[in-house]
Amino acid sequence: MSVTKLFEHRINIRDNPDAYEFEFKKENIKRLCKGLACRLRCAGYKKLTLRNGYHILQKIIQCIFDSQDRLPIFHIQVEENGLPLCWNQPRDWENHYIKYEWGHLISINQNDKADKLDNLGLYSARCNQHIQSSMNIEELKIYGGKLSDRISKVLDNRKKMFQSDDWKKIENELDSFRI
Predict the structure, then answer these.
(1) Which of 26, 122, 126, 162 has a CA-to-CA distance to 58 between 20 and 30 Å?
(2) What digits encode the pLDDT tens for the residues 151-175?
(3) What are phi and psi of 69, to 5 degrees?
(4) Which pairs count as long-range contacts for 169-174, CB under 8 Å and 24+ apart, including other chains?
């Protein structure tokens, strides 16, 4: 068995035209739906399960992903070679796509209501564990540059999404799963 190194993993992601969209295809989105359902049950949607809420979970995921420009929340790439600065955990370096995980804009370590829907984002492992690493998203702007620009853009996109009529319909539908 060959072992993929980080540099190879980043090249494979860069060279895969489907690297950022793979998990959002109909046949692959179930893992993300399952994780979201679990978080939303913690946020008070106790009746929500994968079976009875799959359609609404998919809608939510697509809206959040769209608000992130269909990329990991902190996606930046090196200009000279196009290599992404977002990647998977080492055990997933054999995957030539980003394996998304749910992360919290306001850190779960600093917030009692971390699993609220408006606090969840789609992260790469590096985004979640190394860039944000238990900090609140606003705190990361101190780094400046491209990271600050990316955060501002995503937060602006999310604000527009949460104010949209489509999102209000999703929230109304989601309310039926509250206890």
Answers:
(1) 126
(2) 999 999 999 999 999 999 999 999 9
(3) 60, 30
(4) 170/56, 170/59, 170/60, 170/63, 173/56, 174/40, 174/45, 174/48, 174/56, 174/60, 174/117
Give ∠ CA 26-102-143 in degrees, rounded to 5.
125
The whole-angstrom separation of Cα 141 and Cα 127 is 14
The encoded tokens of residue 42 equal 């913690």
| pLDDT tens per residue across span 54-75 | 999 999 999 999 999 999 999 9
CB neighbourhood size of 44 (10 A) = 16
**Helix or strand or coil: residue 120?**
strand
Q: What tokens does 119 get?
A: 């606090």
CA distance 98 to 2: 20
